[in-house]
Write a structure and sequence with these properties.
Wheat Germ Agglutinin (Isolectin 2), domain 1, 10% strand
Length: 84
């Protein structure tokens, strides 16, 4: 009986611990796809609104990231709306 209780307690701790780590390590699902359809490439606005790409490069704005995607053909997502 005590062994079964210990297993349940360890399972509860493991599930709780995994739940606290999930947002940190599960970021790939939180990446967002840039909305490249809104830009008339190859020209981009010169506004400085940096985004961090999933290639760990900082782009001056989302449009510049879209240009990079079109040029290289890579699927780069936006990790966050700030420099890497």
């Amino acid at each position: 009986m005590a062994q079964a209780m210990l297993r349940w307690a360890l399972l509860l701790v493991a599930v709780t611990f995994a739940g606290t780590l999930a947002p940190r390590f599960g970021q790939a699902s939180e990446y967002r796809t840039p909305n490249c359809a809104q830009y008339k490439l190859p020209g981009c606005p010169r506004d400085f609104n940096p985004v961090c790409g999933s290639d760990m490069s900082t782009y001056p704005n989302e449009c510049i990231l879209c240009m990079k995607i079109r040029e290289d053909g890579h699927d780069i997502k936006i990790i966050r709306n700030e420099p890497c």
